[in-house]
Amino acid sequence: MAKKKGGRMISSAGLVTYYDSEDRRAITINPKTVFAATIGIAVFIYILNLLY
């Protein structure tokens, strides 16, 4: 029998395989930007709840 290459886990049953690859066309967002936007939206909703 031929040996299979690749270190896939047998327990995952091949349902999902993720590869860490970079795509030139992909949109990249800094994690700090996402965090700041989340805090900003939360504060905005909190202020709206106080006003209405």
UniProtKB/TrEMBL annotation:
InterPro entries, alphabetized: Preprot_translocase_SecG (IPR023531), SecG/Sec61-beta/Sbh (IPR016482)
Cell compartment(s), UniProt: Cell membrane
Pfam families named among the record's database cross-references: Sec61_beta (PF03911)
Cytoplasmic side: 1-30
Signal sequence range: none
GO cellular component terms given for this protein: plasma membrane
Entry annotated with the keyword Protein transport: yes
Primary location class: membrane
Gene Ontology terms describing biological process: protein transport
Transmembrane segment boundaries: 34-51
Membrane disposition: Single-pass membrane protein
Keywords of the record: Cell membrane, Membrane, Protein transport, Translocation, Transmembrane, Transmembrane helix, Transport
Function: Involved in protein export. The function of the beta subunit is unknown, but it may be involved in stabilization of the trimeric complex.
Subunit text: Component of the protein translocase complex. Heterotrimer consisting of alpha (SecY), beta (SecG) and gamma (SecE) subunits. Can form oligomers of the heterotrimer.
Family: Belongs to the SEC61-beta family.
Name of this protein: Preprotein translocase subunit SecG
Organism: Methanocalculus chunghsingensis
